User: Which sequence fits this backbone?
């Protein structure tokens, strides 16, 4: 879970997750929303993948990125369980 919180701590990665919430995107489509180099976007995507927040799937010559909603469900479950312990 540490990798998850590290990944979520960066505003660029949170924006990427917001974009993927709308639809699956390629790295190029994601980079169109930012004023930074494609290698920088690739590094952010790598961190999100390591945290298991996104999945990637090769489709032809492109890699399509999508949200891993299971991890978000786990985070919510953990947070709700933590809140209940403090009631």
Assistant:
């Amino acid at each position: 879970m540490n990798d998850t919180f590290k990944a979520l701590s960066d505003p660029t990665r949170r924006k990427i997750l917001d974009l993927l919430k709308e639809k699956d995107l390629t790295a190029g489509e994601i980079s169109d929303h930012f004023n930074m180099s494609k290698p920088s976007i690739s590094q952010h995507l790598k961190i999100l993948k390591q945290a298991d927040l996104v999945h990637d799937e090769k489709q032809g010559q492109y890699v399509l990125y999508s949200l891993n909603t299971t991890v978000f469900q786990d985070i919510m479950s953990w947070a709700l369980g933590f809140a209940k312990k403090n009631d």
